[in-house]
Amino acid sequence: MRNLILIVYLLVPYLTCAQKSYDVIVYGGTSGGFTAAIQVARLGKTVALLEPTNHVGGTNVEGLGGTDIDNHQEFQNSGAIGGMALEFYRRIAKAYGREAAFDTMLRKREKNTNLWRFESSVAEKVIKDWLAEHKIDVYYQARLRENRQAVQKNGPRITQIQTENGTTFRASVFIDATIEGDLLAAAGVSTVIGRESNATYGETRNGIRAVTDHAQFKINVDPYRKPGDPKSGLIPMVQDEPFGTPGAGDDHLQAYCFRVCLTQNKANQISFYKPEGFDRSQYEIYLRYERAGGKLYSPRVDIPNGKTDLGAWHDLSHNLYGMNRAYPGGTYAVRKKILDQHRVFTQGLFYFLANDPEVSEATRRVWSQWGYAKDEFTDNRGFPRMFYVRDARRMVSDYVITEHHGKRDKAIPVEDPVAVTYWPMDLHSVRRIVKDGHAYNEGSVFDGDFWRPFGISYRALVPKASECTNLLTASCPSSSHVAYGAIRIEFTFMGMGQACGTAAVLAQKLGVPVQRVPYEQLRNMLIEQQAMVDAAEIH
Q1: Taking a C-beta distance cutoff of 8 angstroms, is the pair 349, 317 a contact?
Q2: What SS3 state is found at 189?
Q3: Phi then psi for 190, rounded to 5 degrees?
């Protein structure tokens, strides 16, 4: 009798909760996710978009409106944008009434960073309207269950996945478009978190960096609780760990941060507030930085309507080095704890810089002019709901993208490109430690002449056939830590999403594993869709 009760208990979710069937399921509403879903619908197949949160759009709707397009003097990467990515930015331009200027810019190949930028609220409306046009079923708060029932497989093929509310989703093909790679991991696909050693793939910029020059401290900051006394311990935001062996791998990840929308418009402003859990001692390093002669960062208008996309790429900002290592592989509870730690610290930092009497008057004067925008993130007191996950899990397939694919000289050719990345190998530092008695940021990479744009191989978007035959990823390609630094740009995710959506439809129509989708047919379809497929075609 006891065994019968147990069996009934285990079957209850399947007996009482809904079952949904589609041709394709996309898990994650990031840039790669919403483009993949729209592409599947355009090709005539049924599709559902499962979003773990309450908002579709990924980091586009969480503060990153200062899109990394034509924003560096050294290069112009807008020529790499085509297909659905270009359509997205044109829709953004239309929403602002600047479509004619946008098209003129494209026709003349002009470099105008501002025409690519947007507010998160505008991006969210554009994306939701776009999904609605194609009548795509979007399921919000649709996180995978945290148990073995999350993914059911028949051999190497996924048959169904289940969300926390017990709803079962069945499909012929699945696409993981989360940055965290949760569906990949739950399906038993090989993934990696952290930095490989340089020896793993014969690279030179992976692993522990012998010298980190980019975004390094410009002045010497004493890291000890009692200045000059190593025995007194370290101040907050400095990790107590050895430097390690240059080139060795570890589980560190580039820092996460919130992309924060601020305004100086008092009529549309929420003043910086002290968050619950505020701890003034956490900001000692900012005081020492100023006392040592450093000038702290400050907001500036860089997106429409006098607002900011305040990121963190400075030597000292709201990048929290070394505090995210448990996030990618952590439970939902662990992730929430890390997210909350970042939120409390960041909100507290802005309050501190605007109000604390020990902060220099010049810094307080600047920061006190700013506040959160009332009309952004209206469900969260003007603050983004999610931080910028720059790096989490990466798939490990039979084909791995490495720094050798993006080298300016003697690059490895890509035989089956389906999308293009045009960005330097860009990694924020992963930790703040002590070196030569001073605070030191370790791990940043942002190369000058080393790199060039390159194609994303289709083989890097599909798992090993022995692990799964009906799953693709539009956001966690098989790539090394340093190579992912070039890939992790929103328009590149959109390109991979369009490619995955197209490949999923082909796999479903032809009845073949995703690994056996005919490349020439896929390429021709993408070219017909005006997608940018080959880096050699960039003007």
Answers
A1: no
A2: coil
A3: -65, 130
Distance between CA atoms of residues 450 and 485, nearest Å: 14
Convert 466-517 into a string of H (helix), E (strand) and C (coil): CCCCCEEECCCCCECHHHHHHHCCHHHHHHHHHHHHHHHHHHHHHCCCHHHC
DSSP assignment, residue 295?
Answer: -
121-134 burial, b if ≥16 CB within 10 A, otherwise e?
bbbbebbbebbeee
| 464 vs 468: CA distance, rounded Å | 7
| DSSP result, 343-366 | HHHHHHHHHHHHH-TTS-HHHHHH
Q: What is the pLDDT of residues 84-95, one digit of tens each?
A: 999 999 999 999
Is the four-CA dihedral 182, 186, 190, 192 of positive or negative sign? positive
Q: To which residue do tokens 């190949």 refer?
A: 109
| Dist CA 165 CA 13 (whole Å) | 8
**pLDDT tens across 302-360, in order?**
999 999 999 998 999 999 999 999 999 999 999 999 999 999 999 999 999 999 999 99
